[in-house]
Amino acid sequence: MTSFPIKLIECPRDAMQGWPTFIPTETKVSYLNKLLEVGFDTLDFGSFVSPKAIPQLRDTREVLEGLRLDGTSTKLLSIIANVRGAEEAAAFDEISFLGFPFSISQEFQRRNTNSTIEESLVRVEEIQEICIRSRKELVVYISMGFGNPYGEEWSPEIVIHWVKKMDAMGIRTIALSDTIGVSNPDNIKYLFSKLIPAIPEVEFGAHLHSLPQTREEKIRAAFESGCRRFDAALNGIGGCPMADDDLVGNLATESLIGYFGGLERLNLNESAYKEALVMANEIFH
Questions:
Q1: Stretch 43-70: mean pLDDT, rounded?
Q2: What is the 3-state secondary structure of 152-175?
Q3: End-to-end alpha-carbon separation of the chain, Å?
């Protein structure tokens, strides 16, 4: 069977990172192993960042040791926030992708990675060199890619400016990230329809946060504008703590699967998917 040409990036890391109670390591391992059976393109499984910054993910190394990667085509992605984290993640053969959040909001970049935008640009360059040496691929997330809550200047042209900087540095996977749920069909269509034809060597992804009732219109806007890479999390769990509405979570994986015609069309394992949904309901309740 030929799979439908959509890359689904399942993001349990994003779902877990802000969860108020610590999820036991063995529970994380069981959940991630079930997700590995489903057949997603990539699993955003953990992060190599300061335990003080994200205590929920302080056990990423232990979790990685427990993952069953034999027999799965799913690749692993880890989030990193600085050069030290990149070096740690790059040491693991099991990890294919390092993800770096590059905010085009000066305030959010300071809060998220304790650096300015210009300092982060230098970090991207250094991390890209680490990835090349270790045969990893760097995925850059353009955080606050659809607006921000700080009253800072934002426009599609600012987004495009920074994307072109990433392209010039050889970054080949860039995800436009709606950090606080302010994307809408108009700005989604504008950005993807401008960027995808203009920079064909880059794979553009959509990391969108959404209210439940606006998920489908956002998926449609991105897909019809040429996007074929989508980040999501089961049940739409996760999101940014700075979003004003608790219902603004990640895109729900089930919404994407429904929009794109179901599990079989996406070549996903139905029984593993159903079991993973049950586990997600038990963990995130």
A1: 95
A2: CCCCHHHHHHHHHHHHHCCCCEEE
A3: 36
Read off the CATH number of the domain in which 151 is found: 3.20.20.70
With H, G, I as helix, E, B as strand and everything else as coil, classify residue 35. Answer: helix
Q: Is 235 left (phi over 0), alpha (psi -120 to 50) or beta?
A: left
Question: What's the chain's Rg over C-alpha atoms?
Answer: 17
User: Whole-prediction pTM value?
Assistant: 0.94
Percent of the chain with pLDDT over 90: 79
**Unique residue bearing structure tokens 């890479």:** 229
Question: Position of tokens 């294919």?
Answer: 96
Average pLDDT value over all residues in the chain: 92
Residue 2 lies in a domain: no
Domain of residue 87: give its range: 7-283
In the block, tokens 């200047």 appear at: 153
State pLDDT tens for residues 172-188.
999 999 978 889 999 99
CB neighbours of residue 195 within 10 Å: 24
Cα–Cα distance between 14 and 240 in angstroms, integer?
9
Q: How far is CA 247 from CA 8, 41, 104, 213, 235, in A?
A: 22, 26, 24, 10, 11
- Residue 234 sits at φ, ψ, to 5 deg, of -55, 135
What tokens were used for 142? Answer: 């353009």
Q: Residue 21 carries which DSSP code?
A: S
Helix, strand or coil, per DSSP, at residue 230 = strand
In the predicted structure, residue 241 carries a pLDDT above the cut 90: no
- Tens digit of each residue's pLDDT (9 = 90 or more) over 72-107: 999 999 999 999 999 999 999 999 999 999 999 888
CA distance 237 to 250: 6
275 φ, ψ (degrees, to nearest 5):
-65, -40
The tally of domains found in the chain comes to 1
